[in-house]
Amino acid sequence: MVIVRYSRRTVGWALAGHLRAWLVTDALRQALHSRPPRGLMFHSDRGSQYSSREYRSLLARYGIRQSRSARANSYHNVWTESLMGTLKTGMLQDGSFIDAVDTRTGRFGYIESYYHHQRHSFLAYQTPAQFEACKLSPA
């Protein structure tokens, strides 16, 4: 998942039954289509997919700096870990998915139809879109 840190908006994600490099490069490419890559820093954990040649090359191509948390320290990536917990709790609600297509559909629906339209306490009780509009509009 690629999340805009200040607004908690999810701008890129991919889903697979593995953690290979193309999984995170697909999510980043999706994010780059929706957001211009100016002065970005990408925070992640220390997974091998984030240190792969393919991924680091994509970051370099767009001038994105990489910040990886220290071993056994998830502070740089705590908002992503929090959203993943919210997704698992909110989407599953003590159930399970039928297959990969059902999982993809469920995740998309939860993010786009629910999470992005909910008011969040850490955004002064605004939705991610409202928060971004306030922060990006001229004063």
Summarize the structure.
The chain has 139 residues and is mainly alpha-helical. It contains 5 helices and 4 strands. A hairpin with a 4-residue loop joins strand 1 and strand 2.
For this structure, the CATH topology is: Nucleotidyltransferase, domain 5
- Approximately what portion of the residues adopt beta-strand conformation? 5-15%
Q: Average pLDDT across residues?
A: 78
Structural class: mainly alpha
The shape is globular
Q: Indicate the low-confidence ranges by residue numbers.
A: none
From the N-terminal CA to the C-terminal CA, the straight-line distance is 31 Å
Total separate domains: 1
Number of helices: 5
Read across the widest sheet, the strand sequence of neighbours is 1-2
Can you name the CATH architecture? 2-Layer Sandwich
Within CATH, the superfamily carries the name: Ribonuclease H-like superfamily/Ribonuclease H
Task: List SSEs in N-to-C order.
Answer: EEHEHEHHH
Pick out its properties.
139 residues, mainly alpha, Nucleotidyltransferase, domain 5, two-stranded antiparallel sheet, two-stranded parallel sheet, 5 helices, globular
Overview of the molecule:
The structure is a single chain. The protein has one domain: Ribonuclease H-like superfamily/Ribonuclease H (Nucleotidyltransferase, domain 5). The chain is 45% helix and 11% strand. The chain contains 5 helices and 4 strands; from the N terminus they run ββαβαβααα. The strands form 2 sheets. A two-stranded antiparallel ribbon has the order 1-2. It has a two-stranded parallel sheet with strand order 3-4. Strand 1 and strand 2 form a beta hairpin. The chain is globular, with a radius of gyration of 16 Å.
